[in-house]
Amino acid sequence: MDKVIVVASKNAGKIKEFKEMLEPKGFEVKSLADFLDIGEIDETGTTFSANAIIKAQAITDKYNIMAISDDSGLEIDAFDKQPGVQSARWLGHDTPYSYKNQVVLDRMKDETNRSCRYVCAIAVTRPGKEPVVFEDTVECVIAKEPSGKNGFGYDPIVYYEPFGKTMAEMTNEEKNRISHRGKAVVRLETWMEHEGL
Q: Would you call 187 helix, strand, or coil by DSSP?
């Protein structure tokens, strides 16, 4: 029988990446779209880890099941690590990423320090247990212009120098191997094996 994991997110891009990584290992991945009565979960934390715990714990508390939640975002050094935990809500939650990406590029036009990183914190919550968090990063630079059609969010302007391409130009396999989320999921999988889940 498949093991079920509820990913506390409605972000289709995130769900897709989790499914690609976890379904081959025998997990059935469900999302917040399967639990419509949960309502909006307020992300009031000031760190990626805190927000990840808040989202997963809300699912565990309501349904008495194991949940995982990812909180991730982009830290741009020239912007004092913004947008950071506000990455999804920066410039407005419903603002298209094509616009957000253009704003970043415009503000970075004359900037020599283009270093940035994606950060991902994955929280696991289970009934009667303390939350567990796995956090990882991938160091990148802000590209000069958007490129690529894969991925989502800021991927078209986040350039990974070892591959010589943006996150949006990578195949899913390439991205999952080096991404902040991919590396955090490996930590999650190792822990799950250790826990016998």
A: helix
